[in-house]
Amino acid sequence: MKKSFFRGSPFFIVFLLGMRIFVFSQNQVRVDADNQHITVFLNRAQIDAKVRATLQAGTTKLIISNVASTIDPSSIQVGGKGDVVIMGVKFKHNYLGNKKRNVLEDSIRITTTEVQTIDMLIKVADNERNMLMANSNIKNEKDGVTPEDLKEMLDFFRTKLTEIGTRQMQLARQSKEANDKLARLQRQLTSQGGNLNQPAGEIELTVSSKSNATLDINLSYVANAAGWSPAYDIRAKDVKSDITLGYRANVFQNTGIDWKNVRLTLSTSNPSEGGTKPELYAQYVSVFEPRPLARGAMDGKALYNSEAAAAPASESDDQDKMATTANFVNTIQTTLAVNFEITMPYTIISGGNPEMVDIQNFNLPATYKYYAVPKYDRDAFLTAIITNWEKYNLLPGSANIYFEGTFVGTSTIANSDTKDSLLISLGRDKKIITKRETIEAFKSRRNIGSNVRESFGFRITLRNTKSEPINIVIEDQIPISQDSRIEVETEELQGADYNKETGKLIWNLTLQPLDNKEIILKYNVKYPKGKNIQGL
Length: 536
Description:
Blueprint: H1 10-25, E1 27-32, E2 34-40, E3 45-55, E4 58-67, E5 77-81, E6 84-94, H2 99-134, H3 147-192, H4 194-197, E7 200-209, E8 213-223, E9 226-236, E10 243-253, E11 259-267, H5 317-320, E12 329-333, E13 338-348, E14 355-364, E15 367-372, E16 379-387, E17 397-403, E18 406-413, E19 421-438, E20 444-448, E21 451-464, E22 470-477, E23 487-492, E24 497-499, E25 504-511, E26 516-528
Parallel strand pairs: 1-4, 2-11, 9-17, 15-22
Antiparallel strand pairs: 2-3, 3-8, 4-7, 5-8, 6-7, 9-10, 10-14, 11-13, 12-13, 15-16, 16-19, 17-18, 19-21, 20-21, 21-26, 22-25, 23-26, 24-25
Helix pairs in contact: 2-3
Protein backbone atom coordinates (compact mmCIF):
# COMPACT_ATOMS: atom_id res chain seq x y z
CA MET A 1 0.00 0.00 0.00
CA LYS A 2 1.39 3.37 -1.07
CA LYS A 3 1.94 5.81 1.77
CA SER A 4 1.46 9.57 1.57
CA PHE A 5 4.65 11.58 1.32
CA PHE A 6 3.69 13.82 4.26
CA ARG A 7 2.23 11.32 6.71
CA GLY A 8 4.65 10.74 9.58
CA SER A 9 7.11 13.27 8.24
CA PRO A 10 8.33 16.25 10.29
CA PHE A 11 6.70 18.64 7.79
CA PHE A 12 3.29 17.04 8.37
CA ILE A 13 3.71 17.31 12.17
CA VAL A 14 4.67 20.99 11.90
CA PHE A 15 1.67 21.56 9.60
CA LEU A 16 -0.71 19.98 12.15
CA LEU A 17 0.77 22.07 14.94
CA GLY A 18 0.31 25.16 12.81
CA MET A 19 -3.30 24.21 12.13
CA ARG A 20 -3.91 23.72 15.85
CA ILE A 21 -2.38 27.09 16.71
CA PHE A 22 -4.37 28.83 13.95
CA VAL A 23 -7.68 27.32 15.00
CA PHE A 24 -6.94 28.01 18.65
CA SER A 25 -6.04 31.63 18.00
CA GLN A 26 -9.22 32.14 15.98
CA ASN A 27 -11.53 30.72 18.67
CA GLN A 28 -14.85 32.59 18.54
CA VAL A 29 -17.76 32.49 20.99
CA ARG A 30 -21.21 34.07 20.50
CA VAL A 31 -23.42 35.02 23.45
CA ASP A 32 -26.48 37.22 23.99
CA ALA A 33 -26.46 40.11 26.42
CA ASP A 34 -29.03 39.84 29.19
CA ASN A 35 -30.38 43.40 29.38
CA GLN A 36 -31.45 43.98 32.97
CA HIS A 37 -31.63 47.68 33.77
CA ILE A 38 -32.41 50.62 31.45
CA THR A 39 -31.96 54.23 32.53
CA VAL A 40 -34.07 56.28 30.13
CA PHE A 41 -33.11 59.92 29.80
CA LEU A 42 -35.27 62.56 28.12
CA ASN A 43 -33.15 61.81 25.06
CA ARG A 44 -31.12 58.56 24.88
CA ALA A 45 -30.91 55.62 27.26
CA GLN A 46 -28.21 53.83 29.23
CA ILE A 47 -28.43 50.04 29.00
CA ASP A 48 -26.88 47.84 31.69
CA ALA A 49 -26.54 44.16 30.82
CA LYS A 50 -24.99 40.93 32.08
CA VAL A 51 -23.02 38.52 29.91
CA ARG A 52 -21.74 35.07 30.86
CA ALA A 53 -19.42 33.07 28.60
CA THR A 54 -17.27 29.95 28.90
CA LEU A 55 -13.89 30.45 27.24
CA GLN A 56 -11.06 28.15 26.27
CA ALA A 57 -7.43 28.87 27.04
CA GLY A 58 -5.85 31.33 24.64
CA THR A 59 -7.24 34.28 22.73
CA THR A 60 -10.96 34.39 22.02
CA LYS A 61 -13.20 36.67 19.99
CA LEU A 62 -16.31 37.07 22.16
CA ILE A 63 -19.22 38.33 20.02
CA ILE A 64 -22.00 39.81 22.18
CA SER A 65 -25.39 40.03 20.45
CA ASN A 66 -28.71 41.50 21.60
CA VAL A 67 -27.19 44.95 21.95
CA ALA A 68 -28.61 48.19 20.55
CA SER A 69 -27.73 49.09 16.98
CA THR A 70 -27.81 52.79 17.94
CA ILE A 71 -24.90 52.59 20.40
CA ASP A 72 -22.62 55.53 21.03
CA PRO A 73 -19.38 53.50 20.70
CA SER A 74 -17.45 55.85 22.98
CA SER A 75 -19.85 55.07 25.85
CA ILE A 76 -19.17 51.30 26.04
CA GLN A 77 -17.94 50.18 29.47
CA VAL A 78 -16.93 46.59 30.22
CA GLY A 79 -16.06 45.09 33.58
CA GLY A 80 -16.57 41.87 35.47
CA LYS A 81 -15.09 38.80 37.06
CA GLY A 82 -12.90 36.11 35.61
CA ASP A 83 -9.22 35.17 35.19
CA VAL A 84 -8.98 36.79 31.75
CA VAL A 85 -7.50 39.90 30.16
CA ILE A 86 -9.67 42.08 27.91
CA MET A 87 -7.43 43.09 25.01
CA GLY A 88 -9.89 45.06 22.89
CA VAL A 89 -13.49 46.29 22.61
CA LYS A 90 -15.15 47.05 19.29
CA PHE A 91 -18.73 47.79 18.18
CA LYS A 92 -19.96 46.73 14.77
CA HIS A 93 -23.16 46.31 12.79
CA ASN A 94 -24.34 42.92 11.58
CA TYR A 95 -26.50 43.49 8.49
CA LEU A 96 -27.59 39.85 8.47
CA GLY A 97 -28.42 39.63 12.16
CA ASN A 98 -31.77 41.42 12.40
CA LYS A 99 -33.69 38.72 14.27
CA LYS A 100 -37.06 40.46 13.91
CA ARG A 101 -36.78 40.63 10.12
CA ASN A 102 -35.42 37.09 9.93
CA VAL A 103 -38.29 35.72 12.03
CA LEU A 104 -40.91 37.59 10.00
CA GLU A 105 -39.38 36.61 6.68
CA ASP A 106 -39.16 32.97 7.79
CA SER A 107 -42.81 33.05 8.86
CA ILE A 108 -43.83 34.60 5.52
CA ARG A 109 -41.83 31.99 3.62
CA ILE A 110 -43.37 29.10 5.59
CA THR A 111 -46.90 30.52 5.29
CA THR A 112 -46.44 31.13 1.53
CA THR A 113 -45.43 27.48 1.09
CA GLU A 114 -48.51 26.46 3.11
CA VAL A 115 -50.77 28.56 0.86
CA GLN A 116 -49.22 27.07 -2.27
CA THR A 117 -49.62 23.53 -0.92
CA ILE A 118 -53.30 24.11 -0.09
CA ASP A 119 -53.91 25.63 -3.54
CA MET A 120 -52.35 22.53 -5.12
CA LEU A 121 -54.55 20.20 -3.04
CA ILE A 122 -57.64 22.23 -4.02
CA LYS A 123 -56.75 21.75 -7.71
CA VAL A 124 -56.26 18.01 -7.14
CA ALA A 125 -59.70 17.77 -5.49
CA ASP A 126 -61.28 19.74 -8.34
CA ASN A 127 -59.69 17.41 -10.93
CA GLU A 128 -60.86 14.33 -9.03
CA ARG A 129 -64.42 15.63 -9.01
CA ASN A 130 -64.29 16.53 -12.71
CA MET A 131 -62.95 13.07 -13.63
CA LEU A 132 -65.62 11.41 -11.51
CA MET A 133 -68.41 13.44 -13.11
CA ALA A 134 -67.04 12.75 -16.58
CA ASN A 135 -67.56 9.03 -15.93
CA SER A 136 -71.00 9.32 -14.36
CA ASN A 137 -73.07 8.33 -17.42
CA ILE A 138 -74.94 5.12 -16.51
CA LYS A 139 -76.13 2.79 -19.24
CA ASN A 140 -79.56 1.06 -19.22
CA GLU A 141 -80.48 -2.61 -18.79
CA LYS A 142 -80.07 -3.30 -22.53
CA ASP A 143 -76.37 -2.68 -22.02
CA GLY A 144 -76.25 -5.14 -19.14
CA VAL A 145 -76.69 -2.78 -16.16
CA THR A 146 -78.80 -4.43 -13.50
CA PRO A 147 -80.58 -2.62 -10.63
CA GLU A 148 -78.00 -4.08 -8.27
CA ASP A 149 -75.18 -2.64 -10.41
CA LEU A 150 -76.95 0.71 -10.53
CA LYS A 151 -77.33 0.84 -6.75
CA GLU A 152 -73.68 -0.06 -6.27
CA MET A 153 -72.57 2.64 -8.68
CA LEU A 154 -74.80 5.26 -7.01
CA ASP A 155 -73.39 4.34 -3.61
CA PHE A 156 -69.88 4.69 -5.02
CA PHE A 157 -70.54 8.11 -6.56
CA ARG A 158 -72.27 9.33 -3.41
CA THR A 159 -69.37 8.23 -1.21
CA LYS A 160 -66.69 9.70 -3.46
CA LEU A 161 -68.51 12.99 -4.07
CA THR A 162 -69.15 13.40 -0.34
CA GLU A 163 -65.51 12.68 0.42
CA ILE A 164 -64.28 15.13 -2.23
CA GLY A 165 -66.79 17.82 -1.18
CA THR A 166 -65.82 17.53 2.48
CA ARG A 167 -62.16 17.79 1.55
CA GLN A 168 -62.87 20.84 -0.64
CA MET A 169 -64.64 22.63 2.23
CA GLN A 170 -61.78 21.88 4.63
CA LEU A 171 -59.21 23.07 2.11
CA ALA A 172 -61.19 26.26 1.40
CA ARG A 173 -61.27 27.05 5.13
CA GLN A 174 -57.55 26.29 5.48
CA SER A 175 -56.82 28.45 2.42
CA LYS A 176 -58.66 31.44 3.90
CA GLU A 177 -56.90 31.07 7.25
CA ALA A 178 -53.48 30.73 5.61
CA ASN A 179 -54.05 33.72 3.29
CA ASP A 180 -55.28 35.85 6.20
CA LYS A 181 -52.17 34.90 8.20
CA LEU A 182 -49.94 35.72 5.22
CA ALA A 183 -51.62 39.12 4.80
CA ARG A 184 -51.12 39.90 8.50
CA LEU A 185 -47.45 38.96 8.34
CA GLN A 186 -46.91 41.12 5.26
CA ARG A 187 -48.68 44.06 6.91
CA GLN A 188 -46.50 43.57 9.96
CA LEU A 189 -43.39 43.57 7.78
CA THR A 190 -44.54 46.75 6.02
CA SER A 191 -45.59 48.54 9.21
CA GLN A 192 -42.20 47.98 10.85
CA GLY A 193 -40.61 49.89 7.97
CA GLY A 194 -37.09 51.09 8.70
CA ASN A 195 -37.03 49.35 12.06
CA LEU A 196 -36.78 45.96 10.36
CA ASN A 197 -34.13 47.27 7.98
CA GLN A 198 -32.05 48.24 11.00
CA PRO A 199 -28.85 46.17 11.24
CA ALA A 200 -28.23 44.24 14.42
CA GLY A 201 -25.66 45.59 16.85
CA GLU A 202 -22.76 43.52 18.13
CA ILE A 203 -19.93 44.16 20.56
CA GLU A 204 -16.73 42.25 19.90
CA LEU A 205 -14.41 41.62 22.84
CA THR A 206 -10.94 40.22 22.34
CA VAL A 207 -10.03 38.36 25.53
CA SER A 208 -7.07 36.26 26.57
CA SER A 209 -7.13 33.47 29.14
CA LYS A 210 -4.36 31.21 30.43
CA SER A 211 -6.82 28.37 30.98
CA ASN A 212 -10.44 27.46 30.44
CA ALA A 213 -12.53 30.01 32.32
CA THR A 214 -16.08 31.28 32.89
CA LEU A 215 -16.32 35.01 32.38
CA ASP A 216 -19.04 37.18 34.00
CA ILE A 217 -19.23 40.58 32.30
CA ASN A 218 -20.99 43.76 33.34
CA LEU A 219 -21.76 45.67 30.14
CA SER A 220 -22.96 49.27 30.02
CA TYR A 221 -23.46 51.67 27.11
CA VAL A 222 -25.55 54.63 25.94
CA ALA A 223 -27.94 54.21 23.00
CA ASN A 224 -29.58 56.84 20.83
CA ALA A 225 -33.17 56.71 19.48
CA ALA A 226 -34.73 56.36 22.93
CA GLY A 227 -36.18 58.63 25.57
CA TRP A 228 -39.31 59.68 27.40
CA SER A 229 -41.63 62.66 27.61
CA PRO A 230 -43.91 63.65 30.48
CA ALA A 231 -47.70 63.54 30.28
CA TYR A 232 -50.24 64.39 32.93
CA ASP A 233 -53.79 63.61 33.96
CA ILE A 234 -55.31 66.43 35.98
CA ARG A 235 -58.60 65.86 37.78
CA ALA A 236 -60.61 68.35 39.79
CA LYS A 237 -63.81 67.24 41.47
CA ASP A 238 -65.03 70.82 41.99
CA VAL A 239 -63.63 74.27 42.78
CA LYS A 240 -63.49 73.43 46.49
CA SER A 241 -61.39 70.24 46.29
CA ASP A 242 -57.71 69.50 45.84
CA ILE A 243 -56.40 68.64 42.40
CA THR A 244 -55.36 65.03 41.66
CA LEU A 245 -52.38 64.98 39.34
CA GLY A 246 -51.21 61.79 37.65
CA TYR A 247 -47.58 62.10 36.55
CA ARG A 248 -46.90 59.73 33.64
CA ALA A 249 -44.20 59.07 31.07
CA ASN A 250 -44.39 58.13 27.40
CA VAL A 251 -41.34 55.89 26.98
CA PHE A 252 -40.20 55.23 23.41
CA GLN A 253 -37.27 53.39 21.90
CA ASN A 254 -36.05 52.38 18.47
CA THR A 255 -32.72 50.85 19.40
CA GLY A 256 -33.15 47.68 17.35
CA ILE A 257 -33.65 45.39 20.37
CA ASP A 258 -36.68 44.76 22.55
CA TRP A 259 -36.42 45.61 26.24
CA LYS A 260 -37.98 42.52 27.81
CA ASN A 261 -38.83 42.45 31.51
CA VAL A 262 -36.25 45.08 32.40
CA ARG A 263 -36.06 47.42 35.37
CA LEU A 264 -36.63 51.00 34.27
CA THR A 265 -35.26 54.21 35.71
CA LEU A 266 -36.59 57.45 34.23
CA SER A 267 -34.17 60.35 34.54
CA THR A 268 -34.92 64.04 34.05
CA SER A 269 -31.39 64.46 32.71
CA ASN A 270 -30.87 65.18 29.01
CA PRO A 271 -27.37 64.13 27.86
CA SER A 272 -27.92 65.62 24.39
CA GLU A 273 -27.91 69.14 25.86
CA GLY A 274 -24.28 68.85 26.85
CA GLY A 275 -22.73 69.99 30.13
CA THR A 276 -20.20 72.62 29.03
CA LYS A 277 -20.64 76.18 30.28
CA PRO A 278 -21.35 78.63 27.43
CA GLU A 279 -18.86 81.41 26.77
CA LEU A 280 -19.63 85.10 26.15
CA TYR A 281 -18.03 86.83 23.20
CA ALA A 282 -18.07 90.46 22.08
CA GLN A 283 -21.54 91.64 21.03
CA TYR A 284 -21.48 94.09 18.15
CA VAL A 285 -24.36 96.42 17.22
CA SER A 286 -25.05 98.25 14.00
CA VAL A 287 -27.84 100.22 12.36
CA PHE A 288 -30.36 98.11 10.48
CA GLU A 289 -32.17 99.69 7.58
CA PRO A 290 -35.33 97.63 6.94
CA ARG A 291 -36.82 97.30 3.50
CA PRO A 292 -40.36 98.62 3.01
CA LEU A 293 -42.99 95.94 3.65
CA ALA A 294 -45.69 95.24 1.11
CA ARG A 295 -49.21 96.12 2.14
CA GLY A 296 -50.89 93.30 3.96
CA ALA A 297 -47.62 91.77 5.10
CA MET A 298 -48.51 92.59 8.71
CA ASP A 299 -51.94 93.31 10.09
CA GLY A 300 -50.90 93.92 13.69
CA LYS A 301 -53.44 91.43 15.00
CA ALA A 302 -52.63 88.67 17.43
CA LEU A 303 -53.65 85.14 16.58
CA TYR A 304 -55.61 83.05 19.02
CA ASN A 305 -56.19 79.34 18.75
CA SER A 306 -59.20 78.19 20.71
CA GLU A 307 -59.45 74.62 19.47
CA ALA A 308 -58.81 71.84 21.92
CA ALA A 309 -57.03 68.65 20.86
CA ALA A 310 -58.79 65.32 20.95
CA ALA A 311 -58.30 63.24 24.07
CA PRO A 312 -59.50 59.97 25.58
CA ALA A 313 -62.92 59.58 27.09
CA SER A 314 -63.58 60.30 30.74
CA GLU A 315 -62.57 57.71 33.28
CA SER A 316 -64.55 56.72 36.34
CA ASP A 317 -63.48 57.51 39.88
CA ASP A 318 -63.03 53.79 40.56
CA GLN A 319 -60.15 53.62 38.09
CA ASP A 320 -58.29 56.30 40.04
CA LYS A 321 -58.13 53.91 42.98
CA MET A 322 -56.60 51.02 41.02
CA ALA A 323 -52.94 50.22 41.62
CA THR A 324 -50.60 51.43 38.87
CA THR A 325 -46.85 51.55 38.39
CA ALA A 326 -46.97 54.78 40.42
CA ASN A 327 -47.28 52.50 43.44
CA PHE A 328 -43.89 50.97 42.57
CA VAL A 329 -41.74 54.07 42.00
CA ASN A 330 -38.84 55.32 44.10
CA THR A 331 -37.88 58.98 43.56
CA ILE A 332 -34.19 59.77 43.95
CA GLN A 333 -32.95 63.38 43.92
CA THR A 334 -29.40 63.71 42.58
CA THR A 335 -27.29 66.84 42.24
CA LEU A 336 -28.24 67.49 38.62
CA ALA A 337 -31.38 65.44 38.00
CA VAL A 338 -34.27 63.46 39.46
CA ASN A 339 -34.49 59.71 38.88
CA PHE A 340 -37.72 57.73 39.07
CA GLU A 341 -36.95 54.05 39.73
CA ILE A 342 -39.74 51.74 38.52
CA THR A 343 -39.47 48.65 40.71
CA MET A 344 -41.72 46.42 38.60
CA PRO A 345 -40.38 44.99 35.29
CA TYR A 346 -41.44 46.45 31.95
CA THR A 347 -41.32 45.33 28.33
CA ILE A 348 -40.91 47.99 25.63
CA ILE A 349 -40.74 46.92 22.00
CA SER A 350 -38.27 48.56 19.65
CA GLY A 351 -40.07 50.62 17.04
CA GLY A 352 -43.44 50.03 18.69
CA ASN A 353 -45.89 52.48 20.17
CA PRO A 354 -44.66 54.47 23.18
CA GLU A 355 -45.32 52.70 26.46
CA MET A 356 -47.19 54.67 29.11
CA VAL A 357 -45.56 54.36 32.54
CA ASP A 358 -47.15 55.82 35.66
CA ILE A 359 -44.62 57.68 37.77
CA GLN A 360 -46.44 59.32 40.67
CA ASN A 361 -49.86 60.51 41.82
CA PHE A 362 -50.27 63.70 43.85
CA ASN A 363 -53.03 65.50 45.69
CA LEU A 364 -52.23 69.17 45.19
CA PRO A 365 -53.77 71.94 47.31
CA ALA A 366 -55.06 74.52 44.83
CA THR A 367 -56.95 77.77 44.68
CA TYR A 368 -59.31 78.29 41.77
CA LYS A 369 -59.79 81.44 39.76
CA TYR A 370 -61.38 82.37 36.45
CA TYR A 371 -59.53 84.33 33.78
CA ALA A 372 -61.01 86.08 30.76
CA VAL A 373 -59.49 88.02 27.87
CA PRO A 374 -62.58 89.46 26.13
CA LYS A 375 -60.42 91.12 23.49
CA TYR A 376 -59.73 87.69 21.98
CA ASP A 377 -62.31 85.27 23.41
CA ARG A 378 -65.75 85.63 24.99
CA ASP A 379 -65.33 82.56 27.22
CA ALA A 380 -63.92 82.51 30.73
CA PHE A 381 -61.21 79.97 31.59
CA LEU A 382 -61.06 78.19 34.93
CA THR A 383 -57.55 77.88 36.33
CA ALA A 384 -56.03 76.18 39.33
CA ILE A 385 -53.15 77.89 41.09
CA ILE A 386 -50.64 75.62 42.84
CA THR A 387 -47.95 76.87 45.17
CA ASN A 388 -44.70 75.08 46.11
CA TRP A 389 -44.86 73.20 42.83
CA GLU A 390 -41.07 72.81 42.66
CA LYS A 391 -41.08 69.87 45.07
CA TYR A 392 -43.11 67.73 42.66
CA ASN A 393 -40.32 67.56 40.01
CA LEU A 394 -42.70 68.41 37.17
CA LEU A 395 -41.41 68.85 33.63
CA PRO A 396 -43.09 70.77 30.78
CA GLY A 397 -45.65 68.55 29.07
CA SER A 398 -49.20 68.09 27.86
CA ALA A 399 -52.07 67.33 30.23
CA ASN A 400 -55.52 65.80 29.87
CA ILE A 401 -57.97 67.78 31.98
CA TYR A 402 -60.96 66.25 33.79
CA PHE A 403 -63.37 68.45 35.71
CA GLU A 404 -66.39 67.20 37.64
CA GLY A 405 -65.83 63.71 36.20
CA THR A 406 -65.86 64.85 32.55
CA PHE A 407 -63.02 65.31 30.09
CA VAL A 408 -62.89 69.03 29.23
CA GLY A 409 -59.82 69.30 26.99
CA THR A 410 -56.06 69.43 26.97
CA SER A 411 -53.67 71.91 28.49
CA THR A 412 -49.97 72.22 29.17
CA ILE A 413 -47.79 72.34 32.23
CA ALA A 414 -44.86 74.70 31.79
CA ASN A 415 -42.50 75.12 34.71
CA SER A 416 -39.76 76.93 32.81
CA ASP A 417 -40.43 80.28 34.48
CA THR A 418 -39.40 81.39 37.96
CA LYS A 419 -42.82 82.20 39.40
CA ASP A 420 -43.72 81.03 42.87
CA SER A 421 -46.99 79.49 41.71
CA LEU A 422 -47.96 77.19 38.87
CA LEU A 423 -51.10 78.07 36.93
CA ILE A 424 -52.96 75.20 35.27
CA SER A 425 -55.77 75.93 32.86
CA LEU A 426 -58.77 73.65 33.43
CA GLY A 427 -60.72 74.71 30.36
CA ARG A 428 -63.65 76.92 29.37
CA ASP A 429 -66.75 77.68 31.41
CA LYS A 430 -69.65 78.63 29.14
CA LYS A 431 -71.71 79.79 32.13
CA ILE A 432 -69.58 82.92 32.45
CA ILE A 433 -70.24 85.32 29.59
CA THR A 434 -67.97 88.20 28.58
CA LYS A 435 -68.23 90.75 25.80
CA ARG A 436 -66.00 93.58 24.58
CA GLU A 437 -67.42 96.26 22.27
CA THR A 438 -66.33 99.65 21.01
CA ILE A 439 -67.91 102.77 22.53
CA GLU A 440 -68.74 104.55 19.30
CA ALA A 441 -69.68 107.80 21.04
CA PHE A 442 -66.14 108.11 22.43
CA LYS A 443 -64.26 106.98 19.35
CA SER A 444 -62.88 109.99 17.46
CA ARG A 445 -59.98 111.31 15.37
CA ARG A 446 -59.05 115.00 15.62
CA ASN A 447 -56.27 117.21 14.32
CA ILE A 448 -54.45 119.22 16.98
CA GLY A 449 -51.86 121.48 15.37
CA SER A 450 -49.27 119.25 13.66
CA ASN A 451 -50.55 116.14 15.46
CA VAL A 452 -53.47 113.75 15.26
CA ARG A 453 -55.27 112.61 18.37
CA GLU A 454 -57.26 109.38 18.25
CA SER A 455 -59.57 108.36 21.08
CA PHE A 456 -60.53 104.76 21.81
CA GLY A 457 -63.18 103.45 24.18
CA PHE A 458 -64.32 99.92 25.00
CA ARG A 459 -67.07 98.53 27.16
CA ILE A 460 -66.50 95.10 28.75
CA THR A 461 -69.61 93.42 30.13
CA LEU A 462 -69.59 90.33 32.37
CA ARG A 463 -72.38 88.00 33.46
CA ASN A 464 -72.22 85.09 35.92
CA THR A 465 -75.01 82.60 35.16
CA LYS A 466 -73.75 80.11 37.76
CA SER A 467 -75.52 79.48 41.06
CA GLU A 468 -72.41 80.33 43.09
CA PRO A 469 -70.11 83.36 43.35
CA ILE A 470 -66.85 83.36 41.39
CA ASN A 471 -63.53 85.18 41.46
CA ILE A 472 -62.50 86.31 38.00
CA VAL A 473 -59.52 88.14 36.52
CA ILE A 474 -60.21 90.26 33.44
CA GLU A 475 -57.24 91.09 31.22
CA ASP A 476 -56.91 93.79 28.57
CA GLN A 477 -54.22 96.14 27.35
CA ILE A 478 -53.17 99.68 26.44
CA PRO A 479 -50.82 100.26 23.47
CA ILE A 480 -47.16 100.97 24.29
CA SER A 481 -45.25 103.66 22.42
CA GLN A 482 -41.73 102.87 21.24
CA ASP A 483 -41.36 106.23 19.52
CA SER A 484 -41.05 109.58 21.32
CA ARG A 485 -43.33 111.14 18.69
CA ILE A 486 -46.20 108.85 19.73
CA GLU A 487 -47.88 109.57 23.06
CA VAL A 488 -50.36 107.22 24.77
CA GLU A 489 -52.45 108.63 27.62
CA THR A 490 -55.03 106.76 29.67
CA GLU A 491 -58.36 108.41 30.34
CA GLU A 492 -60.39 105.82 32.21
CA LEU A 493 -59.18 102.46 33.57
CA GLN A 494 -61.85 101.93 36.22
CA GLY A 495 -59.56 100.67 38.95
CA ALA A 496 -57.40 98.36 36.81
CA ASP A 497 -53.91 97.29 37.86
CA TYR A 498 -51.88 98.93 35.06
CA ASN A 499 -48.38 97.78 34.12
CA LYS A 500 -46.88 100.66 32.11
CA GLU A 501 -43.98 98.55 30.82
CA THR A 502 -46.19 95.89 29.23
CA GLY A 503 -49.43 97.86 28.85
CA LYS A 504 -51.33 95.06 30.56
CA LEU A 505 -54.52 95.81 32.50
CA ILE A 506 -55.88 93.50 35.18
CA TRP A 507 -59.18 93.70 37.06
CA ASN A 508 -59.74 91.31 40.00
CA LEU A 509 -63.49 90.97 40.46
CA THR A 510 -66.02 88.92 42.37
CA LEU A 511 -69.29 88.13 40.61
CA GLN A 512 -72.26 86.98 42.63
CA PRO A 513 -74.73 84.45 41.15
CA LEU A 514 -76.59 85.95 38.15
CA ASP A 515 -74.60 89.15 38.65
CA ASN A 516 -73.72 91.60 35.83
CA LYS A 517 -70.80 94.01 35.76
CA GLU A 518 -69.50 96.59 33.31
CA ILE A 519 -65.97 97.88 32.82
CA ILE A 520 -65.14 101.00 30.82
CA LEU A 521 -61.72 101.41 29.20
CA LYS A 522 -60.67 104.68 27.49
CA TYR A 523 -57.36 105.97 26.18
CA ASN A 524 -55.95 108.44 23.63
CA VAL A 525 -53.06 108.19 21.16
CA LYS A 526 -51.36 111.32 19.76
CA TYR A 527 -48.95 111.15 16.81
CA PRO A 528 -47.65 113.42 13.96
CA LYS A 529 -49.88 114.10 10.97
CA GLY A 530 -49.26 112.09 7.84
CA LYS A 531 -47.85 109.10 9.70
CA ASN A 532 -49.35 105.63 9.55
CA ILE A 533 -49.29 104.07 12.99
CA GLN A 534 -49.14 100.31 13.29
CA GLY A 535 -50.67 98.38 16.15
CA LEU A 536 -53.74 100.53 16.84
